[in-house]
Specification:
The protein has about 200 residues and is α/β, with parallel strands linked by helices. It has one domain: Rossmann fold, CATH 3.40.50. A seven-stranded mixed beta sheet has the order 3-2-1-4-5-7-6, sandwiched between helices. The longest helix has 13 residues. It is globular, with a radius of gyration of 15 Å.
Length: about 200
């Protein structure tokens, strides 16, 4: 059961389980995998979709070490506000992830890495524009998209559809080894080279 600062995630899960999709933050070990593609030099632009309470935010900030631009897009205002206060070096925007191309265009940026903490349901159109092509179109030529999945959901039909969509959208989709120290165990999808 989450305690302390982690209870905000549990509260948001109870309010909207399909949008929050987890009751506890991801582990440090999973965060380390999610941010591996951040270049060690230069001024990279990293976009974080659905940062929640900041499990991946901290890893991104540590890997950037004060370089580049870190834009975090959080739909839930009850999570966006505290995240902005905890990480003053991060530009936190309270918005839908579907606004990603517009938010980058306003800043004259393209993403070197898009890190997603969003649940599967966020990628299903439901009358909106599909999110994966928007992410792919927002990446620079060498950009990478990372998304995690819990191992026990990997074989479920929504996860299989998502993987198929990833492979339709990107030329290269690689899965990491299982991160056993995450609860529940998880893995990371690394997607590169958007198609068309």
């Amino acid at each position: 059961m989450p305690t302390g600062g982690d209870t905000s995630l549990l509260r948001e899960f109870l309010r909207a389980p399909l949008l929050t999709a987890t009751v506890a933050p991801s582990s440090r070990w999973l965060a380390d995998q999610m941010v591996v593609p951040i270049p060690e030099s230069g001024q990279p632009t990293v976009v974080e979709l659905g940062p929640g309470t900041g499990a991946f935010t901290r890893g991104i900030q540590e890997r950037l070490g004060g370089r580049g631009h870190h834009l975090a897009i959080e739909l839930n205002p009850r999570l966006a506000g505290p995240l902005s206060r905890r990480f003053p070096g991060v530009e936190v925007v309270h918005a839908d992830a579907a606004r990603l191309p517009e938010l980058l265009a306003e800043r004259g940026l393209s993403a070197d890495l898009v890190v997603s903490g969003l649940p599967w349901v966020a990628y299903q159109p439901n009358g909106k524009r599909p999110l994966l092509p928007l992410v792919a179109g927002s990446l620079s030529g060498h950009g990478v998209f990372t998304q995690f999945a819990y191992c026990w959901t990997r074989w479920a039909p929504p996860a299989q559809r998502y993987l198929l969509d990833l492979r339709r959208t990107f030329e290269e989709v690689v899965l990491s080894r299982t991160v056993w120290l995450n609860l529940p165990p998880a893995l990371v999808y690394f997607a590169r080279r958007p198609r068309g």
